[in-house]
Amino acid sequence: MHNALVFLKEQTKDGLLSWRAQDTTAKLFDISHAAVEWLALQNGILPARYQRNRSMIGVEDQLRLFQSRVAVIGCGGLGGYVLEELARLGVGQIVAIDPDIFEEHNLNRQILSTPASLGQPKVAVAAERLAQVNPAVTVTPIEDAFCLTNGFELLAGVSIAVDALDSIPYRLQLAEVCTLAGIPMVHGAIGGWYGHVATQFPGETTVQNIYRHWVAGKGIEQQLGNPSFTPAVVASLEVAEVCKVLLGKGEPLRNRKLSIDLLEMEMHEISYAEVPVKLVNAA
């Protein structure tokens, strides 16, 4: 690795390492693009792809993002945008979890879906897309449904989990697993013109409080559907929350929900008192 580092330093201009130099290094020294990016960031060299980040995310923060492992549960409307933005942000390890395949009704809003991808597993398409977007990112595709039974295994080693589910029962299970595993969770939900975002840390019950009056059914998304823009907006807010939590910057949406109304173009913050909530029985 010493020779690779010497070569990297020779290729660096104004503290930036071009993609061509990264790619050449990987091929010349027979190492992965992830290894090249780690070597660069560890030595204060910023890959040029992140140069527009550096006024708000310096090299040390970029290294922290690269060393983070984020799980995205659900790779459809919300999840597709979340995955794309995390990869472009430079999160080094991404776990993509979804049991489904792409269907024709996904084409109106799910950024990973194309006519060519119909019938293909969403996680496989996600892994292929992210490899094209940022080859330094390691993607672990898991074609399985998240539940209490496998939740702890799927989230092993994860820094934070992103809820991109369309099922209230499963997101409540995700909230419980995250709490028991000591993992922060960013929650997002969409329906028609509307959506909301919240961030929950272990020991908090914001998500459970949001759905405390839920009785049955998958949620309002099934009634209202979703246009192309709602998942893009809410997913971007989720990624912003993930970035803040990973870097310890700003004020996450803890104990509160940001409610988004794109029809009237309004946003409202709703606070949730932390009251005891009975968790799902994990046994």
Automatic annotation (TrEMBL):
Protein name: HesA/MoeB/ThiF family protein
MF GO annotations: tRNA threonylcarbamoyladenosine dehydratase; ubiquitin-like modifier activating enzyme activity
Biological-process GO terms, alphabetical: cyclic threonylcarbamoyladenosine biosynthetic process
SUPFAM superfamilies: Activating enzymes of the ubiquitin-like proteins
PANTHER family in the cross-refs: TRNA THREONYLCARBAMOYLADENOSINE DEHYDRATASE
InterPro entries assigned to the protein according to its UniProt record, in alphabetical order: ThiF/MoeB/HesA, ThiF_NAD_FAD-bd, Ubiquitin-activating_enz
Ranges where the THIF-type NAD/FAD binding fold domain occurs: 50-272
CDD domains in the record: ThiF_MoeB_HesA_family
Taxonomic placement: Bacteria, Pseudomonadati, Thermodesulfobacteriota, Desulfuromonadia, Geobacterales
